Please model this.
Amino acid sequence: MKKSRLTLRILSYFILLLGLGVVAVPIWYMVSTAFKPQTMVFELPPQIWPNPSTLDNFVKALTTDHFGLYFWNSLKVTLATTTLTVLVSSMLAFAFARLKFPGKEILFYVLLLGMMVPPVMLIIPQFIVAHKLDLYNNLWGLVLVYVTMNISMQTFLLRGVFEDVPRDLEEAAMIDGGSPFTIFTKIVLPLSGPGLAVVVINSFLYSWEEYTWANVNIGDSINRTLPIGIALFQSEHLTEWGQVFAASLIALIPVVLIFILFQRYFVQGISTTGIKG
Amino acid sequence: MRNSKARNQIIPAVIFLLPGFVLLGVFFIGPLLYSFRISFFDWNFAHPDRSVFVGFTNYLTQLKSQIFHRAVLNTAVYTVITVAIKMTLGFAIAVILNQSLRGRTFFRVAYYLPVITSWVIVSLLFTYMFSGMGGLVNYFLKDVLHAISKNIMWLADDILALVPVVLVDIWKGVGWATVIFLAGLQGIPSELLEAAQVDGANRWQRLMKIMLPMMRGTLVFLLVVLVLGGLNAYVPFQLITRGAPQDLTHSILTLMYRATFSRMDFGNGAAISYLLTIFVFVLSLVQLKLLRKPAGE
Model:
């Protein structure tokens, strides 16, 4: 009995370490390539760390091809999307969790439809709408579509969170003459910190890496976001992998920061989505 | 009293709902219906009023097209392989990580890293690793394992080109499946497993007879979400194979993109996306039906 437990334990670690290797090799290859001079990009056998290594790729990525500008565009789009998603979906969620109004159920089903329709099938008509509203080639065109594509899921998630806020507090406020607006801003929002953090993470990651819609809606190079900039750079400079991955690593910095800062909410985000066993 | 309270809430409700539903109307429901209309027209993008109604022609064109058949086949194969492997590996790793092991948190974070890395970046990374000349994969197969005698031109072959596309999805997706399975495993009461152990059930029996049936909800959720994601695959196909060679390596959505934006044929593009949606809808219903009823009951 004891012996079989030990074997199992060793086997577990063996599988975990094997998996770790599979995860780590591509990441290591990306990082080390970013530090390779161009002449070494296809050199074999691969070295653990390039010798000589160089920071040229990072300097070039930051100074040429407008990567600085793309970074800035991505940041603007992401911050606007995140702010608006939190605002709009928490308002929707509050109405569905706390207010009484006719047609509530039908409207909620309409909202849920947004979680079921594959987003890419909307691209053609969204493109036409963006043209009509003068949002083509405009960063706001990205923001408004991103918010729309996110609110169904995030509202669904927040509705569950808001429903858990104790009602006694609300009734006390009601007696004191508080309106739904005071209850929303003074009671429900302040007590839903972790839930709101999950929404921030979800919408941040989504808009930071979104490619498909941005690729359709952005024509001018000055309005490109990072994913578009990186993909386009690769297709124009087929073999300059060092620069591609230097730019990629820079693009990953905010994601890793968010991940480290909000690590505990990542798991929480999954359990609040409503899948339990 | 109750009635007046309800009436009082209509105005706030409208205010709270308005921003969200304006966005949904303009960018979601409107487009959904508009796209349906477009799919029945030979659509003229510059002058929509000059579009010609063609009935089901666009749908029939697609259903008869060899390239469309191939895209459906590619997407189906991709979905079946990636979903099966991600679920199996994700479950196995979750069961391992669910024990009290030293370094559990570390492994969980490490396995999650590919999940947060963006699709564009990992697609380019796998393109680079699968380069025909000087790529890491060929080096490993040829010079380390001696499994092949000369370099494989992965991206020049219409079947081999799908290998990096499938692998990148598995590499990026296993961590997510693992975390979801872990959440499901933690929902199983430990008394149940202990009781089974006392009754003499071995590990395998506990896994098959208790853990899997108890995780039906998690399994259904993962299956539906992963299949949906697989059928909607776009970025890895678009960036790794680009449909080459000869438009044989498209997914349904890269084909839709090509029809719409490279050929400005919006009618056919819309028809492709509706064909996909109908299929996705039917499949989701079937999946939910199949998994709701426990097998053998």
Q: What stands out?
A: Strands of chain B lie at 41-42, 52-53. The radius of gyration of chain B is 24 Å.
